[in-house]
């Protein structure tokens, strides 16, 4: 088998943790993902981010597919390998992973349906994602952005061993989406960030 083909196959392999399967997002996940991303309970800290139509979800999947194709990793569909709480094995519970941003750093993220919260699953998925991002592009820092009013997500990042790189509200011109630059936000990273990269991450809002 050629090295290129081997690489492509490695990229598309699902990752497992003790209770989860993380598989590359595909267009087949759009309904499941929209169920989670269209649920206002998953956007309590950023109501404007809620997906109101499937087109938004499709575009998020396209971004994940592009990140994986070009950088070896992206966001994943997360399914249970075993029952957790009231949820059955095989259940799609949400999305976790990291997309490569144009500024040259990974953007780590996760969003699960409320019934899956409180079982340590985000920590499990984020740990596997951090490992995969570093394996795929070791020279690119792994960053994560979170609002100060989201202590659960902050805890997940701290438990992962990421360091706080910045905390504040920048008032910078946002590079995309709604303007959240005035809100108190935190940036975490797996290593020291160059000033240029940190400024660019902060400017994302
Ligand atoms: C963020 C999210 C994925 C976390 O999922 P989860 O599976 O419940 O997270 P985990 O169980 O792995 O970890 C949660 C941690 O927060 C802690 N925690 C729970 N409530 C808390 C609170 N009010 N304050 C501080 N910490 C809290 C838990 O004790 C746990 O820490 P521990 O492992 O040290 O005990 C989930 O809440 C979610 O999908 N939220 C909506 C989307 C979102 O906010 N995404 C992140 C955007 S940056």
From TrEMBL:
InterPro entries, per database record: Acyl_CoA_acyltransferase, GNAT_dom, N-acetyltransferase
Designated name of the protein: N-acetyltransferase domain-containing protein
A GO MF term: acyltransferase activity, transferring groups other than amino-acyl groups
The species this protein was found in: Agromyces aureus
N-acetyltransferase domain: residues covered: 20-190
